Amino acid sequence: MSSSSSHTEGLVQTVGILTIKLIKGTKLKNADLIGQSDPQVIFTNGRQVAKSKVIDDTCNPDFKGENLSLCIESKSIPIKMHVVDIDTFSEDVLGDAELSISGLKSGADLDVRDIPLNTEGSITIALSYTSLVEEKVDEELDKLRSGQVCVDCGNKKIEWASVSLGAWLCIACSGVHRSLGTDISKVRSVDLDVWGDEQKKGMLASNDFNSVFEGGIPSSVQKITPSSSRDEREKYIKQKYVELAFADKNLKATKLEELVNNARG
Ligand SMILES: [Zn+2]
């Protein structure tokens, strides 16, 4: 690990506990030739896994309110739900889905949801969330964000940031950054994640950032805007951060890291 990136890598921290009360499955896929499916629901959050009991021989399982829980590191990352048919000799997939937990409030009433699977049928669950950190607007971070724009498309609505680059991002551009992998850009939510002091210190004014990363943009290249398509964004953002095609040539920097160091001064 280089010294420049270690500044911005906070320790992984559990910010809350998600409790999933499993209610029922409805019209799940029948994967068995004799009888019906034997469904089990598996929730994963990064490396954490929570599995329900297996309910035998039914496509409409009653989970009888079984409670499962997961530690949450970031409410901005959806939970994956995987439903399988457990047989003696095999495990067939009955379907998958994702649960967004970003809107859950600590200590609120159960959030009952009927989650459709990507195959057929649905799983009914009730979610509750207990925060282990004080959930309030980080005023320091909010102040840093004020007046900045998305460094890629110029959108004034900033909900995300790349903490490895020190760059403010809109939701659409943050999705492209995430797809590039954490070697290129580490994305965090401004409102939902807990930030370390070093991460806050590493953030740059969007103009300063772009004077380095777009300082040498060819006149033939058109900058993306908040209404650009996903394809246009992907192309532009890859050129900007993977190929470093728009960087200020006077800096003679050839690596992403060198440009970040330049921008941070
Ligand atoms: Zn943007």
TrEMBL record:
<keyword id="KW-0862">Zinc</keyword>
<feature type="domain" description="Arf-GAP">
    <location>
        <begin position="135"/>
        <end position="258"/>
    </location>
</feature>
<keyword id="KW-0479">Metal-binding</keyword>
<dbReference type="InterPro" id="IPR037278">
    <property type="entry name" value="ARFGAP/RecO"/>
</dbReference>
<dbReference type="GO" id="GO:0005096">
    <property type="term" value="F:GTPase activator activity"/>
</dbReference>
<dbReference type="GO" id="GO:0008270">
    <property type="term" value="F:zinc ion binding"/>
</dbReference>
<dbReference type="GO" id="GO:0005543">
    <property type="term" value="F:phospholipid binding"/>
</dbReference>
<dbReference type="InterPro" id="IPR038508">
    <property type="entry name" value="ArfGAP_dom_sf"/>
</dbReference>
<feature type="domain" description="C2">
    <location>
        <begin position="1"/>
        <end position="114"/>
    </location>
</feature>
<dbReference type="InterPro" id="IPR035892">
    <property type="entry name" value="C2_domain_sf"/>
</dbReference>
<dbReference type="InterPro" id="IPR000008">
    <property type="entry name" value="C2_dom"/>
</dbReference>
<dbReference type="InterPro" id="IPR044518">
    <property type="entry name" value="ARF_GAP_AGD11/12/13"/>
</dbReference>
<keyword id="KW-0863">Zinc-finger</keyword>
<dbReference type="Pfam" id="PF00168">
    <property type="entry name" value="C2"/>
</dbReference>
<dbReference type="Pfam" id="PF01412">
    <property type="entry name" value="ArfGap"/>
</dbReference>
<dbReference type="InterPro" id="IPR001164">
    <property type="entry name" value="ArfGAP_dom"/>
</dbReference>
<protein>
    <recommendedName>
        <fullName>Arf-GAP domain-containing protein</fullName>
    </recommendedName>
</protein>
